[in-house]
């Protein structure tokens, strides 16, 4: 303990906290300005949700994680060497509250899941989808045996071949030049090219003989990434080792890409990553309330039915009135009205650190009040 004590005293210095605030304030300004040019998601990932970022490609600058970690360690060390006498107790309680607030921020940064759930009236779902991240889906399918297998429709056709899904496999860790093995399906996939935001161009020459599917009709090329990351369309060009053929897929692809391996038919696709909910949500009714004499929306309301292990529960989700269930919070985010069908979009946030800001605020308020009351007799004696 004696060997550690000098380090605790050093990291407990008030100067460390003070000088940490300067780069923290600079990060807030820099990150706020950067949102205009690189988007909210990228600005947050670069400046706040990082240990460092590079300036001029070579100079490392501490990011939000590093600075907040220094402040957290400083507060903890300060608590170890502080006096716990009555006149210092209020200050220590405030420090505990701030440390809890930072710890809650850590839990939020590491474990939070954000996305959305889109529901038409009468539709129910028990999952929500990520705004940005995709997952690779492989499905074993079978077509109707009594009917000849339908030809793949034209690329932009709304008609899709019907099939029955027998089994589904999901991979979330696909990256460029990585081999993915679906062990149960006995399929090896080698990623040849990965596009963060893909563009399509109609082919004017014949495709190589080993290419199959829609890439025989289109070239894939890298487009400049959108400022709003959710507008990017991710794509893959990959090779199936079992049949030695090359395919291409992209997020939101209007047709199904089939793969034939050992007389078995599979469908492979990219879709927004799904997170399963502990409840099932059904949209009973959606209402859009307009300002009087205008078509401008004043409020959106989603009347939902929530099914959990305890039974059914009805709830209302509207602007500034979210619905909460355990670690999940559902917000009214958007809506669409097409072909006399109303669809509601709910933003979903899973936050394990949700309680910490409330708890930390109460502790800090109590600490400040205690500190004031502890010094009140001295103030009164002076008067």
Overview of this protein structure:
The structure is a single chain. With 383 residues, this protein is α+β, with helices and mostly antiparallel strands. It folds into three domains: 5-112 and 368-382, no CATH class; 113-125 and 276-350, Sandwich (Tick-borne Encephalitis virus Glycoprotein, domain 1), CATH 2.60.98; 130-274, no CATH class. It is 30% helix and 40% strand. It has helices at residues 5-11, 14-38, 40-48, 64-81, 86-111, 355-382; strands at residues 52-55, 59-62, 113-120, 124-142, 164-171, 179-182, 187-195, 198-202, 218-222, 235-240, 245-250, 257-261, 264-290, 297-308, 311-318, 323-325, 328-338, 341-350. Strands 3, 4, 5, 12, 13, 14, 15, 16, 17 and 18 form a ten-stranded antiparallel beta sheet that branches. A four-stranded antiparallel beta sheet has the order 6-7-10-11, with no helix packed on it. β14 (297-308) and β15 form a beta hairpin.
Could you write a compact summary of the structure shown?
The protein is of the alpha+beta class and 383 residues long.
Key terms:
383 residues; Tick-borne Encephalitis virus Glycoprotein, domain 1; ten-stranded antiparallel β-sheet; 6 helices; globular
Number of domain units: 3
How much β-strand is present in the residues?
35-45%
What is the radius of gyration computed over CA atoms, rounded to a whole number of angstroms? Answer: 28 Å
What kind of sheet is the major sheet? 10 strands, antiparallel
How many extended strands? Answer: 18
Roughly what is the average pLDDT, rounded to an integer? 87
Shape label: globular
Continuous helix count? 6
What is the SS-derived class?
A: alpha+beta
N-C termini distance: 45 Å
Estimated helix fraction: 25-40%
Low-pLDDT ranges: 152-158
The succession of helices and strands, N to C, reads HHHEEHHEEEEEEEEEEEEEEEEH
